[in-house]
Amino acid sequence: MATTNGHTAISAVDAAAEERRRLHHESDVLIVGAGVLGSALAVALGRQGRSVLLLESSLKEPDRIIGELLQPGGVQALEQLGLRDCLEGIDAVPVRGYHVSYQGDTVDIPYPKETPSSPAPEGRAFHHGRFIMKLREAAMACPNVTVVEAKAMELVTCSFNDNVLGVKTVTKDGKTDCYFADLTVVADGYASKFRKGHHEYSPKVRSKFFGLELIDAALPKPFHGHILLNSETPPVLLYQIGTHETRILVDIPENLPSATVEKGGVKGHLRNVILPSLPKGAQGPFLQALEKGQMRSMPNSFLPASTNKTPGLIMLGDALNMRHPLTGGGMTVAFSDVVVIRDVLSPENVPNLADTKKVLKQMEVFHWKRKHGSSVINILSMALYSLFAAGNPNLKVLQRGCFRYFQLGITKGPVSLLAGIIKEPLVLFWHFFSVAFLSLWVLFRESALYMLPFFPFQSISVFVTACVVIFPYIYMELLK
Ligand SMILES: Cc1cc2nc3c(=O)[nH]c(=O)nc-3n(C[C@H](O)[C@H](O)[C@H](O)COP(=O)(O)OP(=O)(O)OC[C@H]3O[C@@H](n4cnc5c(N)ncnc54)[C@H](O)[C@@H]3O)c2cc1C
Ligand SMILES: *[C@@H]1O[C@H](CO)[C@@H](O)[C@H](O)[C@H]1NC(C)=O
């Protein structure tokens, strides 16, 4: 067992709690997974005076293609948690907005200032692993937190009342052990081992992102996320994540015709379809990265949150709730959730975390309160993905309408929703249906004369498609 604790002078009470964590494996809170959510939560609760055990299966710097662009809303939440420092010293790149291209046309979408005199909001893009190491360092520096390298294997439950008491673990060298706490928090990410039986829904995978790291690529609009759209292929994202490095994520739904085995699979699709569509300054680095063969992929899932009913257990982060990573909203939701949970489970609201009834009641409060920071991001990511991936003719009409909407200069609202700055579902609803109506107008204007007799049918069909795109997510996110 590797125990890490970076502190010296602490009070006798805290020292006793530390010893209880280290020797007896007991704490107030046991967090499984020192990723984006788990590390931030450990700091937030530790600073409230809770005794926290943070378990992580590998404390090595992660090397992953996820969680690399933090929206301004996420930077704000990180600031509220007193963790803004974690963005320093990791060669992070400021993000000031988006640059969207569609069939050769482009439009710039800056993050807007709240008032003319306020500074423009900024996001940050970085190497995921470096940021995670900073978050973990912050947890280790907290005297009330003990970080342990061990993998949680299963929950330990009380045999007569089904309360979760802790977890069984195994270390890299095969030693098994147990850790106990009043409250166990599962934050083990997208492929959570512990959802089954404790979560109402299971993830739906809509596509995969294939990622490559480009060296010294020149993008048309530095310090901006790039979204490449086109009516024939699903969206491609590009953003700089370090002085020399740029991430490209290529969305590939299942059964994409240009990625079939006969056409050379995903690699064939990347070489034949994606390469020629990239900005000139990215093509060389893309080809080099492709030839180096370091392509990696991750599933893009949708998972609505559900309220947990198991006493002694809560589920957070990707284990609880997922949305399409197209809009880079996952970490923003995670940090907003930590801000909410810190308040909902504060020592003032819940003096004793062993009071499982009280905790469950507060988690019901959390379920509704967190929607303020998560619903808009979740609905927008899924609806926008449907439009940007445009799998049928009606969606292509909406995709074109969406780009025209941006071209008209109506970007302030939409990008503030995406950035996690505006959190009002009504604003999202308004823009979405404005796009739908603009799409119909564009369809009318750009239809050939002989097609006009079909316009009434076509427009109803497009409108129905728009409703089908958004209402299921509105229902799941706002009402359930
Ligand atoms: C392709 C892709 C790109 C993305 N890009 C972005 C982006 O640009 N911006 C953004 O905001 N969001 C992005 N996201 C979403 C974001 O990465 C997640 O929402 C976020 O990482 C969730 O944090 P988490 O702490 O729940 O999970 P994770 O960050 O995955 O952390 C889980 C941790 O638990 C550990 N663990 C797992 N199992 C165990 C176990 N049994 N015992 C102990 N430890 C365990 C893991 O090692 C890991 O450290 C992306 C997602 C995908 C799929
Ligand atoms: C640790 O917990 C104690 C209560 O046990 C609290 O007084 C103290 O502020 C906490 N320390 C830090 C650095 O958060």
Condensed summary:
This protein is an alpha/beta fold and 480 residues long. It has helices at residues 12-24, 36-47, 72-80, 128-140, 265-277, 280-292, 330-344, 356-369, 371-389, 393-407, 412-418, 425-446, 455-479; strands at 2-4, 26-32, 52-56, 69-70, 93-95, 97-102, 105-110, 123-125, 145-149, 151-157, 164-170, 176-186, 204-215, 225-229, 236-240, 245-252, 296-302, 313-315.
pLDDT < 50 stretches: none
The CATH superfamily of the largest domain is known as FAD/NAD(P)-binding domain
The CATH class assignment of the largest domain is Alpha Beta
Bound ions, cofactors and other small molecules, one mention each: flavin-adenine dinucleotide, 2-acetamido-2-deoxy-beta-D-glucopyranose
- The computed structural class is alpha/beta
Can you walk through the features of this model?
By secondary structure, the chain is α/β, with parallel strands linked by helices. It folds into three domains: 12-62 and 127-202 and 303-373, FAD/NAD(P)-binding domain (3-Layer(bba) Sandwich); 204-301, Alpha-Beta Plaits (2-Layer Sandwich), CATH 3.30.70; 392-479, no CATH class. The protein is 40% helix and 22% strand. The protein is built from 13 helices and 18 strands. It has helices spanning 12-24, 36-47, 72-80, 128-140, 265-277, 280-292, 330-344, 356-369, 371-389, 393-407, 412-418, 425-446, 455-479; strands at residues 2-4, 26-32, 52-56, 69-70, 93-95, 97-102, 105-110, 123-125, 145-149, 151-157, 164-170, 176-186, 204-215, 225-229, 236-240, 245-252, 296-302, 313-315. The strands form three sheets. Strands 1, 2, 3, 9, 10, 11, 12 and 18 form an eight-stranded mixed sheet that branches. A hairpin with a 5-residue loop joins strand 11 (164-170) and strand 12 (176-186). The longest helix has 25 residues, at 455-479. It is globular and about 80 Å long. The relative contact order is 0.13. The model has no long low-confidence stretch (mean pLDDT 95). Flavin-adenine dinucleotide binds next to helix 2, strand 3, strand 4, strand 10 and strand 17.
